[in-house]
Amino acid sequence: MRSRILKAASLLGAACVLTMIAWGRLPTLTRETVWAEDGGVFLRDVLRAGHLQSIFLPYDGYLHVLPRLLASISHALVPLEGYAIAMSLLSCAVVAGISIGVFHLARVLTESVSVRLMIAVIPILLPIGPNEVLGNAANLHWYLLWLAPWLLLKKPANPAAGAVLFVLSFLTAASEIISGMFLPLAVWVAWKRRSYAAPAGLLLGLILQVLTTLVNPRFNGAAPPTDAVDKLSVLMGYVLLPIGSIWHPDSRTLASGIVNFGSWVLVIPTLLFIGLLAFVLAKGTTVLKFGAVVAIAASGLCWAASVVLSGNTMFNYAAYAESDWANSFTYIRYAAAPGMFLLLLVPLAIATAVQNGHISRGNVPFFAGIFVIFLLISYFPTATTRQTGPAWAPGVDAARTACSNDRALASAVVVVAPATWKFAQVEIACPELRSK
């Protein structure tokens, strides 16, 4: 009993520490700003439909179950003016939970604590994280994509563990339809390893996603763009964003380097990742080779699927002129999950080096420390998408004042970021504002 209490206390302590590490990467105004769907869709639907009724509502053709759950919890737990802080903190806590979970799940690849710690810190210290994806529920799905294969590869030791894997896999799939790229892995796990909990959860979530997108198409009857981004630009974008954002955390630095020196500025990091992959495939055990193949496949598929499905011409990097690099090029959320899977090659290479006698087991913590230091260099972001606000709480106060001054007013609006987004205003009923 005492050991269980100590274990629970250590897990809670680790979760709190990691949450604060993630939270500390966000500038104050970023924490206080509601980002996109967190307000314009998820909170709006909680206010209109209610807590439970909003969880499975479709948006843009898909389900977003976990983000909607966090929106509902945040609205229920704190006063309305605290919604931004609550969503940011809960989102960081989810990422911390994912890190802790992956630390334990990574035993499927290695028993080394140091190597698993390297794997665990990747989502917390991902260089591009604070730019857009860290600290908001709207982008938690990128971290869920990172979690998905770990859930599938773990064979539960008992029914309770199986239930946890089923629920987490379901939440992952019911929050991100691109997790369907892991279906082949799920089939392999079920067939070869006779492990069914996580594959069943993934399948159920994906079935609901497909039904949702059939009933509520993303493009609302319009033909989706199928050739907006050429193949060369997809490849170039992969090198520029998932790889480039790890090596050059500031997109302006990378853009300046490209203008001045061309693609040579990305040769070294690209060759490093190719070298890591080749080393693991040549020298690693079957398990480590399998992990490397899953990592590189997931990284490439996640990037390609995101870019192609977006149909956004901003990804046509092959057609960029010098002025485009200077004025238009920037890092975006699509680099997050591919970047995490790329970084996984580093601890896999360390594990391979240990097994081949190139590194002694006693020196693994040293190399793990170097890896963490490399990531910590980018701990504080040069810019975030929410760094200019608008802060949520003052907007709520202004809306509450408007309702108080005009008793006939039915509702008031509060602005969220980004200002140019189609749902940049959240309409809140005056009774809701007056009641809190």
Which keywords apply here?
globular; mainly alpha; 3 domains; two-stranded antiparallel sheet; 436 residues
How would you describe the overall organization of this protein?
With 436 residues, this protein is an all-alpha fold. The chain has three domains: 1-224 and 360-385, no CATH class; 227-358, no CATH class; 392-435, no CATH class. The protein has 22 helices and two strands. It has helices at 2-23, 28-31, 37-49, 51-54, 65-77, 83-105, 113-125, 129-132, 140-153, 159-173, 183-192, 197-215, 231-247, 251-261, 267-283, 286-310, 322-327, 336-343, 345-355, 364-376, 392-405, 430-435, and strands spanning 411-415, 425-429. Strands 1-2 form a two-stranded antiparallel sheet. It is globular. The mean pLDDT is 94.
Task: Please summarize what this structure is.
The chain has helices at residues 2-23, 28-31, 37-49, 51-54, 65-77, 83-105, 113-125, 129-132, 140-153, 159-173, 183-192, 197-215, 231-247, 251-261, 267-283, 286-310, 322-327, 336-343, 345-355, 364-376, 392-405, 430-435, and strands spanning 411-415, 425-429.
